[in-house]
Amino acid sequence: MALISIIEDFHPLIDARLLARAEALRPALQHEERLPLPFNDAPLGKGAELLLDFGEHLVGRMTLTLGTAGSHPDAPATVKLFFAETLRELDEDPAAFDGWLSRSWIQEETVHVDELPGILTLPRRYAFRYLRITVLDTSPKYKLIVRNALCRTETSADRTRMKPLCSGDEKLDRIHAVSLKTLADCMQEVFEDGPKRDRRLWMGDLRLQALTNAVSFRNFDLVKRCLYLFGGSRFPDGRVSANVFAGARPEGDDTFLFDYALLFPAALEEYLEGTNDAEALDDLYPIAMEQIDYGLRQQEDGLVNAAAVKDCFIDWSDTLDRTACAGAVLLYALRYAQRLAERKGDAARLEELRRQSDTLREALLRRFWSEDEQCFVSNGQISAASQVWMVLADAGTPEQARQTMRRALSLRGTPHMTTPYMHHYFVMALLKVGLRTEAEQHLKDYWGGMLDAGADTFWECWEPEKPGSSPYGGLIVNSFCHAWSCTPAYIIEKHLLNQDTK
Ligand code: RAM
Hints:
Elements: E1 13-14, H1 16-24, E2 33-34, E3 49-70, E4 77-84, H2 87-90, E5 108-113, E6 118-121, E7 126-137, E8 142-153, H3 170-186, E9 201-202, H4 203-214, H5 220-232, E10 233-234, E11 243-245, E12 251-252, H6 258-275, H7 278-297, E13 299-300, E14 303-304, H8 306-310, H9 323-344, H10 347-368, E15 369-370, E16 375-376, H11 384-392, H12 398-410, H13 420-432, H14 436-452, H15 488-496
Helix pairs in contact: 1-5, 4-5, 4-6, 4-15, 5-6, 6-7, 6-9, 7-9, 9-10, 9-11, 11-12, 11-13, 13-14
């Protein structure tokens, strides 16, 4: 499933006031200096390699101090630098990548160094733990020495708030710590999806980052800034883009995802729960309702139409039937819209939303609940995703929900859940039906599985059945510090320790 949308002449609907508000909330970045674990400063001739390990995942800018051995350098040194978030990435051949994403995301540079000895400051920000330096050439007269490698890290997260968990369960504590590290490394001038790739703001990711931020860094201004960015540059008909390019001139992408747009009301309501921000409610309530109205307009015979189903992300999977999920996400969003309408004192709208929810719930149950299977079936397919979203949407009775999540736990075949994004919602659905032990176990197995496989930060994709898989046609462009994977800290603090299953 390649996710590429190209709309010629796309002119987003710009709300300059909202964008100015977002700009005013641009955070200051905080920096720290990090050195590699001890390394060998032996002279490196043509073809020699040096692998630096910084001991932890970093996001920042790199400066190398270079010296020479031998006679006076009579030619530039050419060096290849390859930054990798994981050891596994180092085994990949950048030249062999032939996937559908840009190979420009590969963190590889070839640099000529004319002045030696000297300082080499690299122009980009990198996300990495490892740096492999390959000397492509010096000259017969000299060898290169890497005397120092310094990374100046960047984040907008206040690291002093990164309190370790002491639950008495070592695995849970480590999962909690790595999830906060993942979030911190994704917190830049916006909540990025991944500091290596795509380095921008995606709605589905933002919603999960904001939840985890609320139990950790509590940088609500950054959440507000991101919501305003989504509000400030939209599709011409008012829809929220799936993501925003958040550089100096922010612009919503011409990619639309039905489920992501419907998470805007959820993210807004959750932001308001934490802040009671009246300005944000006034500014963004109409935009949240526009997403709901769009969703409701996509109904045919009470269910979401095929075009909108096609616009649903849900998980990286080519075989997943998203029909049930699309309807369930709409019903789920209607619940948040009702809370927003209540908050806003919009009684007429609230009444209407209640009616629309009831109608949709009935239609979903009628179409997708199977008495024979005792679970939700989407066009003949029984997937974890369909069960999860139906349960989260409150589509069935509590008994049906519990039944269906038991069924989801026992599903072994395809379609597999492929991302921590989907696994997050899986755990939330288990908690919702009271399967707390199973939820905790799943969290430990799935995120713990990444730790066992060597994660320093949680990954964009992790299929225990297929380690090394990539939705992009090559692991080398996968992100290994990814926003939507940061939720264990939220789940642990808000739900496992507090027994809160809202
Ligand atoms: C990927 C991004 C992001 C996700 C979208 C759907 O390209 O990394 O995390 O939200 O896909």
